[in-house]
Amino acid sequence: MDFNSRFRVTALAMLIGAITSGYWQVAYADDVVQFNTQFLDVKNGDRIDINRFSRKGYVLPGQYSLQVVVNKSPLADEQQITYLSDDDNPGDTYACLSPELVAKLGLKPEIVKTLQWVKEGACLKPGQLDAVEISADLTHSQLNIIIPQAYLEYTDQNWDPPARWDEGIPGLLFDYNLNGQWRHSEQSDGSDDHDISGNGTVGVNVGPWRLRADWQGNYQRDKGDDYKTSRHQWDWSRYYAFRALPQIHSQLTLGEDSLSSDIFDSFNFIGASLRSDDQMLPPNLRGYAPDVSGVAKTNAKVTISQQGRVLYEAQVPAGPFRIQDINESVSGDLHVRIEEQNGQVQEYNVSTASIPFLTRPGQVRYRMATGRPQNWDHHMRADAFASGEASWGISNGWSLYGGAIGENDYQALALGIGRDMAALGALALDVTHSSTHLPDNSAYGDGTIQGNSFRLSYAKDFDEMNSRLMFAGYRFSEENFMTMGEYLDSLEYENERTGHDKEMYTVSYNQSFQDIGVTVYLNYTRHTYWDRGTEDNYNLMISHYFDIGDFKNLSVTFTGYRNEYDDETDDGVYLSLSIPWGNDSTVSYNGAYGSSMHSNQVSYYSRLNDANNYQLSVGNNEHDASVSGYYSHKGTWADVDVSANYENNQYTSAGMTLRGGATLTAQGGALHRVVTPGGTRLLVDAEGVSDVPVSGYGAQVKTNAFGKAVISDVNSYYRSQARIDLNNMPENAEATQSVVQATLTEGAIGYRHFSVISGEKAMAVIRMRNGDFPPFGAEVKNARLQTVGLVDDDGNVYLAGVNPGERMQVSWDGAAQCEIAMPDPLPKDRFNGLFLPCQGAGQPERAPKPESLIQEQTHRQMPAPDLAANIATPTATTLAEQPRK
Q1: Are 763 and 796 in contact (CB under 8 A)?
Q2: Tell me, what's the pLDDT at 565?
Q3: Which 8-state DSSP code applies to residue 208?
Q4: Element housing 21 (H / E)
Q5: Least confident residue range of 60-69, 201-210, 744-753
Q6: Is 247 exposed, middle or buried (0-12, 13-18, 19+ CB in 10 A)?
Q7: For residue range 659-677, what is the model confidence (pLDDT) as tens digits?
Q8: Do residues 758 and 689 touch, judged by C-beta distance below 8 A?
Q9: Range of the domain at 402
Q10: Is 659 in the same domain as 807?
Q11: Does the reported pTM lie above 0.70?
Q12: 202 and 270: one domain?
């Protein structure tokens, strides 16, 4: 392409930019804009396709595929928007907003009821809402709608009203979490222990319904000099289905479940439940999730379970850990098991009692359930039951809450009141009365017994002190008071008690001293029983951040703990010093001193990139030297954690965790990482282009061989984005749309596609059969209707993303006029200019061979024919009828 041609293409870009910015517009009384096309210095100036820019805000009648943007927030999918002539204002057009589109705008119900419709109810009547602005930005394929907040439901920066929630597409999913451990003893028996365990979820999505089945399994094999044992277990731990009910901000669940309650203890049942879902509220109004902390003496496997059902399982490196990603819907007591690679085991319980049950003024939060209680292996345990509870915001700061649960031989009634005392914190007090008819010879007594349980909860943020105190409750239960779970245990274990609660209180305190760089975290739980020993759990963590000379952001942490469980006590302290070493590395010292063992360890940690990190350690346990390593990889297909330990004269061990999943839909599928088994995910489509780097809020993934990838770090009911990393795109691939977003309901499989052009780049000249060429500004579009080039005044075009043998449309005057075909194979000198005949509709021709193109290129050195005499641009149907000049 010569200098003049390049200048004219640049001039076209300048013109379009000037027009869309308004800088070169000349407005008259009727808002008509006229342009002097001589400004472009192009041949045949009357043959320029810029009619769409000749009226301010004017859009030609027709149908457009546009991204709808409401108050600068784009809706999930592109919409087909039809522009119609305005009967009341001849010469003007307006966008036809369909009832389906208006329903997604998030208007208040009382506003929707007043709306008027035209075109037999197909279009919203324009101009009926004051201060609402609707404008098309065709250069960015957008329809911008500005709506005053007074017309809209509540919105948040990252939260959409229910009208914009997406239920996703139908599909299948299989999520897994596999753990493998091997340990070889150096002692006299020389035993080898193998342990493989796993859990996960299989699911089907159909419309708004999520069908799920949770599974868990374990295989153990022990081999010594004179023995060999093995055992295995497999269980479908839960079958259930759920769906969102956005109209009432609730979730309906059918099948096997655990009772979710802020008042009553949890137990397993099969039946149905309906509960208001805090996840459907804006993020700053959502509820509480439990926090589990502890200390691993070596690389270890942490398992958190409830009622025999595994909720969380993962490998953790040696040292203190704090798990904060337990699902916020979990309530009741959790059992924590820390299995060290040296064979030792720690166990204790953690209460997930929530902060005071307060509700906003005028609102009601509720939970209801009914069904049959069952144990962990799906056996029924009692007659049918029903339960219900609610919290009502009486006024500003006051909430009244209570509930009831009943079965033939068990009934309980609770009533409580909560108060937000502003500067003094939040306080809640409730009392529960139970009446239980026990079977004969029960370990809890005979006949009908009645008792009361009292609970006091308190929480307070001290903002001026950067601290938070949560006294999440003191609870005292009389000896004759029974929970539903204890009643069920009395039926299954008639002659023994499994733990009859007496007192329980938990204190959590977090304090930050920013001036001196010190943070203190304290957690204490005490649990007493009428029929067995007391359980205590202490955890104190003190961290100090400081600088020494050229070393910045050093930290030292002291952790003390004590666990008393099942008449056994395990206590100790943990000391760590961390020194940053470069940008992504750390050198640290860790010392553990406890009742069962002492150890010292020096470690080197390095973060290779966003997806990979590792840690190497050397030290001693008691009197024996040890070496260990830990590696973590967040991959496109799965997350992998690998660890290994060697202790001289003691043991050698290794462990691995593999977390991943597979999602399959009619739109395609992919293997992927998993954040929450069975949870929400987003399937993205790069239009068949592989190795496109895509990220959400976690590690980056790449599209598979079919151009698909699954983003699993998606929060339900939260506006989430996925974006292409434009700096690391594959060669010969370009993204014309690199960001998508979605607000998905819980468990949904969302689907979004990026506009990606893949292929070679080339320079070409386009000629029609009569020797003419398309008008200046005509668009070349591929089979996906993506614009891959703009024609200049000599028919020259720079094409991006073309492939051998591909056929593309050439469009002007708002429609496809003819078709070109790329040669197969593409010539190596394609940047010297390919000659591409443009065929009329219904007149296919074979793509020219590369040799003829080169020969044709030599003839193109002759002056182009002067077609200025043409009165009008010929259409595709008339091209063949015109004689070649």
Answers
A1: yes
A2: 78
A3: T
A4: helix 3-21
A5: 60-69
A6: exposed
A7: 999 999 999 999 999 988 9
A8: yes
A9: 249-288+354-444+461-468+479-491
A10: no
A11: yes
A12: no
